[in-house]
Here is the input.
Amino acid sequence: MELNQLTIHELQEKLKNGETSAVKVAESVFNRINAVEERVHSYIRLMKEEAMSAAEQSDKDLQSGKAGPLSGIPVALKDIVCTKGITTTCGSHILHNFIPPYDATVVEKLASAGAVFVGKANMDEFAMGSSTETSYFGPTRNPWDLTRIPGGSSGGSAAAVAADECIASIGSDTGGSIRQPAALCGVVGLKPTYGRVSRFGLIAFASSLDQIGPFTKDVEDCAIMMNVLAGYDPLESTSVKAEVPDYRQYVGRDVQGWKIGIPKEYFIEGIDPEVSAAVKDAIAVIEKNGGQCVDISLPHTEYCLAVYYIIAPAEASSNLARYDGVKYGLRTSEARDLLEMYKKTRREGFGAEVKRRIVIGTYALSSGYYDAYYKKASQVRALIKHDFEEAFKKCDIILTPTTPTPAFKIGEKTDNPLQMYLSDIFTISTNLAGIPGMSVPCGFTAAGLPIGMQFLAGHFEEGKLIQIASVYEKNAQIEKRRPRL
Amino acid sequence: MKISSSEVEYVAHLARLEISEQEKEKFTFQLNDILLYIGKLNELNTQGVEPMSHAIAVTNAFREDRVADSIGTEKSLANAPDARGEFFRVPKVID
Here is the structure.
């Protein structure tokens, strides 16, 4: 095995006992990038120079006993988190030249843990999309089949981990943008509880739904990343002052006697039969290891997508008002007065999906429609949250497929927004309720495409997700495959 | 039709967004599709349900009113397409 193929915990071991160095690990990652990046396009920007000097520093720290939990570990950052002095585009033309004057809190935390940043990962423009096709910088391709999408919006972060172009990565999840690409690329992805990880320095899409989380090659790595990322941040007023456990302690604990809720609304017609079969096999593995399945109902499931496509665009239309050609980013060269400058800058700077959502959101918030749309959606959101509260009285964890189908073809859904939105049908409820969710690989289709399943838990119960996912990972013995590139 | 093409144009104006004729037609068609789908929320009776704005109820994230480090004028203006002195410069607002 090459160094770039290893997990964080495997590399930690090798770095600690001097078997390899952080510089060698970084070189191995950049060699891989040289070999495959042209085909996969996981990154908008590489940070090789910065990475090599960070790796040298890691080696010094490792030698002097000052190493952090991620010293020498190459990590990719979705290009939605601000990096001081390094262009941060959010996948958009309007921010193509934006150089943040500060680091996002997660970037600061990762850096002080010793992480080596490989680059800024590709994404759907402003995280609006499920396929990474709306990026101004061109699409990312699924490493398992280059004619297919990697999922989105954090498609670059997922593909980079799957293609061994980094060891772990950071994504953000507003309606499934970590879990859906994790499933479609065959890696582990966790969306933490709303408020668990600071959003300071995360470019805002829908502020009541956005959350940052990790992509990793296995469950233990997910726990290691969460130990670094989680925690209260005084700079972020919605981050929560709740105790952060050592997530690694949950790895390997059994789930004897746990009740596993199987929501009937998530096992419906229209799910790809191979996805359905893989998830059923996974359920059998968990039952064999002490889990006890119970049928549950989340009765408002069919309304989640409609609620999301009011709330997310409404919040986005407000958040994206700041891109006006005045403070940063693109400004049109054609305007004669201020109003024209705003309108033309935004026309030139935003892509079609972003414009579409700004228009929907503005419409939903406009005078005369607010009660019918935004207020109604916020009321149904309360009902959806209540569904989960009731469900968690009957079970410890909920298990569902992460996506209804495996990765679809590039271009297949770009002309039909509603079809595209439907690929997030199983992930959106989690963000609306604010609970944590995790996607874990659970097999492959006959054509060799990865399949993912999703675990959901109550607020701040990420530890439970890690616990059951590690039991599954250990006992399912899913064949270890790597994409052929 | 839930939304007409002139409404789409008006809403785009409210959002300070210029759209082409072609985009206007396409968006009108697509937005009607989406709004039709969203209309299924009306199946639900939500009378008396308190609207939910945040997943985790956090109120009043107060901190002490103390001056801390800030970015400063120079760095704040560094990304501006057109800065002059201590100001953001914009095209004229009125004739």
Q: What stands out?
A: The mean pLDDT of chain B is 91. Chain B is about 35% helix and 5% strand. Residues 63 and 69 of chain B are 15 Å apart (CA to CA). The first helix of chain B runs from residue 5 to 14.
